[in-house]
Design brief:
The complex is a heterodimer. Chain A is built from ten helices and no strands. By secondary structure, chain A is an all-alpha fold. Chain A has one domain. Chain B starts with a helix and ends with a helix. Chain B is built from six helices and no strands. Classes of the chains: A mainly alpha, B mainly alpha. The interface between A and B is medium-sized, with 31 and 28 residues.
């Protein structure tokens, strides 16, 4: 019970800080938008081609955006030296991770859903009939990105060259998410859309595996 | 010193015997001809590399649990040795693939996941160069090593299910597949000899790392006083 209430309080803090500045979400939105536009130059963006490449494009953009966005995850604590205070304030340090990864999932999902209509219009891919499935895949994928990303950003925050290090550590680790979610999204963009259940199950397994690992090893990541 | 030299001689003899077996004892493949003999280097290195990474993973777990720097030394040594063997796999793979499949590289499950595995351990070693303090470096890299190793089956599974154009597994694959009994024996013997080489390299690298760790502690003490 205390884990849940601690997490809720910390999540509130994370969301409040972001809503005051809105820095993170704004920059991520612009970043993904730039990637979406730049990608159109790398292939012939007709409706047919976009169905084939669109899902990969979207997920690569999300992956890169996440690897940039998650850098600042522990930066505020690091800069203001508040990590020890944060650790002392909760019984279980897992609550800190839960709150951060929930906030990150929320920011990522929010950004993705904001950009989905723009993508759909620019690349001529109909998304409305499969919207609820897309939301599910985006959620499971973003959750995976956030779990792994929050853990690794706690690592990279303690190293030199952290801006370069995080993508380096994170991106190869996210290969399974990229493969599975691209596959599920591609099937949803198909002329006759269908749901790849195996992919959805796989994403769930990825999330569970890394959530368990974070639960087991998270407290060591925050050791002083 | 003497023991090390003896160990090295034993490994060289073992590797020589494995090479002899690969060239002269194993029968020639009916379809591929001579080129298939690279299997004994390629597959044996792949298994050895995986063994080394598994040792690294265990050492990482032990470090997080026991907090002794020797586990850190073992972890980094095994990761480096594993990386060497995996590099051999990635180089011999295309050499074999080109004459047999007609292409240097295909994005098949085992190739791609080996490559991702290689990248993960390169990242592991890079991370180590970017953290100064020894205990912190040991802890952070051990945790990353654990995450990376957990990721490997997921990488393999995802690529195998959705990026399939690979030949089916031959050793321990489905019924109907399988290696000629002599070939299998030679392959297992090659693996054994490679494991000998791995142990030798690992031991030398571990001793170097342990000495380096001691040196660093002494240096820090000297600087502090």
């Amino acid at each position: 019970m205390s884990l849940l209430s601690n997490t809720t309080v910390l999540l509130g803090k994370e969301l409040r800080t972001e809503f005051r500045s809105r820095e993170l979400v704004t920059t991520t939105v612009v970043f993904i938008l730039i990637v979406i536009v730049l990608f159109s130059f790398t292939f012939d963006p007709s409706a047919e081609e976009s169905r084939r490449f669109g899902s990969g494009l979207l997920w690569l953009a999300f992956l890169f955006a996440a690897s940039l966005m998650l850098q600042s995850c522990f930066l505020r604590e690091q800069n203001n030296d508040t990590l020890s205070a944060l650790r002392l304030s909760v019984a279980d340090p897992f609550a800190i991770f839960l709150a951060k990864l929930a906030a990150n999932t929320f920011f990522l999902l929010f950004t993705e859903l904001l950009l989905l209509p723009i993508f759909a219009v620019m690349y001529n891919v109909p998304v409305l009939p499969v919207l609820h499935w897309l939301v599910l895949v985006f959620f499971l994928g973003s959750l995976g990105l956030s779990i792994a990303g929050t853990a690794l950003s706690a690592i990279s925050a303690q190293a030199r060259m952290r801006e370069l290090l995080l993508p380096l550590l994170l991106l190869p680790l996210l290969t399974p998410i990229l493969v599975a979610s691209t596959e599920v999204t591609a099937a949803l963009f198909d002329r006759s859309p269908y749901v790849v259940w195996k992919g959805i199950g796989f994403l769930t397994v990825f999330d569970l595996v890394f959530l368990t690992a974070l639960w087991l090893f998270g407290e060591y990541l925050l050791e002083e | 010193m003497k023991k090390n030299a003896l160990g090295a001689i034993a490994v060289v003899l073992l590797l020589g015997a494995a090479a002899y077996a690969a060239f002269f004892i194993a029968p020639t493949d009916a379809k591929q001809g001579l080129i298939y003999r690279i299997l004994y280097l390629h597959v044996a290195s792949a298994w050895t590399g995986l063994t080394a990474f598994f040792i690294s993973f265990l050492a990482n777990l032990l470090y997080v649990w026991r907090r002794q720097l020797r586990w850190d030394a073992l972890g980094v040594s095994a990761a480096e040795v594993g990386l060497v063997f995996t590099t051999v796999v990635l180089v011999t793979g295309p050499i074999w693939a080109h004459p047999v499949w007609g292409i240097w590289w295909t994005w098949d499950a085992r190739l791609t996941s080996t490559f991702v595995l290689w990248l993960l351990y390169v990242a592991y070693l890079l991370l180590r160069t970017l953290v100064e303090e020894p205990d912190r470096r040991a802890l952070l890299s051990a945790l990353f090593g654990i995450f990376a190793f957990l990721d490997v089956p997921l990488v393999f599974g995802s690529i195998r299910w959705w990026r399939t154009q690979h030949p089916q597994p031959v050793v321990m694959g489905e019924p109907g597949s399988g290696l000629d009994p002599t070939m299998l024996k030679v392959l297992l013997f090659s693996w054994l000899s490679m494991l000998g080489l791995m142990t030798l390299l690992l031991w030398q690298r571990y001793r170097l790392e342990a000495m380096r760790g001691e040196f660093e502690i002494v240096r820090r003490q000297a600087e502090a006083s």
